[in-house]
Amino acid sequence: MTTEMAHIFLTDAQALPSACEEESADYFAVLVARVRAGDELAFERIMLATEQRVVSIAWRMLGNREDARDAAQDVYLRVYKYLERFRAGEDFRAWLYRVTINVCRDFARKKGAAGLAQFGEIDFDQEGEVFATARSSNPESLALQEQQLALVRRALQSLPERERAALVLRDLEGFSTEEVAQALGSRPVTVRSQVSSARAKIRTYCDKLTRKRGASQ
Amino acid sequence: MRTLKCKRVARMVSLYVAGDLVGAPERDVAVHLAACEKCCRLAEEFSESSSLITQAFTTPEFGAEFYSGIRHAVLGEITRDRRLSTPWLFRPRWLYATAFAAIVVISGVMLQHFVGSRRGVPQDLARAPQVTVQPTSGSSEGPSLRKKHLLTGKPSAPSSNALALASPHGSSRHFEGMRKPDALVTAQAARDGRAQIEPAMQSPTRVGPNAVESVSLSGGSSSSPSERASGSQISRIEIQTADPNIRIIWLVPRESREPDETNHDQDHPETSNRK
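YS: structure for the whole thing
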């Protein structure tokens, strides 16, 4: 990784925008123009700048590592293929996240209902870091907390696609409502309504299951 | 200050907890929550579930190899696609455009040819008139031959007859370069036979019953004196136009001209147009 980065910066450091400009929209505009001209190195720079966010969204939407990796690859291949459709002046990152959400939707549909039902039980336990911060010395409270987290994942997975995407981008990725609206191609009012509805459903879902378990015990 | 009802606050409290409300709505909800214990508990639940969501979906560290694997796979796929992609000249959209253009050009040429063939019948006639002179028995035709429109064989048949010139003795000559205009054919033929055909028609005795002599003329201009044999015979000149349905038939007596018969110039070649 370090070698590749060094190679990239040594070979094309003068022509490409510097790393400190990465947050600006012009940075991506320059890279997109270079990719359109056939520069694969510029496309690699785009991937380097955005891959963590893309993988994170894919993982949160799909729930496991392998699907997130496949989805991220598909996202970048789709971006490369349809880069000509990207209009100048548009926010590249919003467009990229929209592609990511669409790819994740396609993946979820391919997996089908059976695959989605296992969302709360798969791979999250393998990502040990998820629970590293929540670990406590008391095994009983740890088990209870893990149950709650599994419930939340399952609750998120039970949401309609649009509400799930809005909640992931707004609450988990930390985008503003306007940014989420841009990424999803809808209005901020709609996003606010979707997010509000999603939160209420998750709270209700968790509340119901908690009460049910409390009654059974 | 306006106070909100609990039902309305319940719809707004999730937005309030996440900081989505600004301005007056935020203030109204805050005032209501300070006064309403039930809505305050609801807000706490939303806050807890929100923190649970964040906790449950904390992105793990995937590692540098994970990301480099994605990059290598993508760039490898792109390179492979580039290598396999066909040149732009043979991409489907160019292929379709070329095929469409070819179809349009061919259609245009065919249409032009068709229209030209429809309009250009006189031109073709001028280019390649075909004249056939066939012997005609005077006795068989009789006096009524004068203005009779003769209908000759089938439309496809005459063209072959017109190309071959049969001599009186059975020999045949082929002529090429038939390029005389039809008007010249008519003029030539009129000059040669106008004065003779009228008496020939009117005097059946001049036409020999055993006339078998046959001469074909090419372009109407190649009639030689030998072809206008003397005697009481009538030569039938058939001018086959390019249109197989149109044949001009002219009856020409073979005998020598008589001065007193040159006045009968009113009789012109008759055109039989068969469709």
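YS: worth flagging: Chain A touches chain B through 48 residues (CB under 8 Å).
IM: good catch. Also The CA atoms of residues 2 and 8 of chain A lie 10 Å apart.
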